[in-house]
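Amino Acid Chain and Its Fold in Token Form
===========================================
Structure side: the spatial fold of the chain, written down as a series of whole-number tokens.
Position: the record begins directly beneath this header, with no further notes in between.
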Amino acid sequence: MVKIALNEARWDGYQHQYSTVTISFTVPTKRVRDKGNLICASKPFLDGLTEFGVIVDDSYQWIDEQYPPVQYEKGVSRTVITIEEPTNG
């Protein structure tokens, strides 16, 4: 799944160094969900980013993980992963 997403994003092979990785969840219904379970379910995506060389590692030494509040959008189920490196200056 990660490989497909990288191809669709036209990833250029760049390996991010220390980065902020933001994982945003959009859910399709107002059913009560455990955000911790959504976070745990995203772990394979981080492993895939490491395996394919997008990030060095998914440990706290290499990434600062951010999980904004879960969003509701009727009929939409989506997980978006954004990788940002600190800017100099």
Remarks:
- The first strand starts at residue 19 and ends at 27.
- The chain is about 25% helix and 25% strand.
- Helices lie at 2-8, 35-41, 43-51.
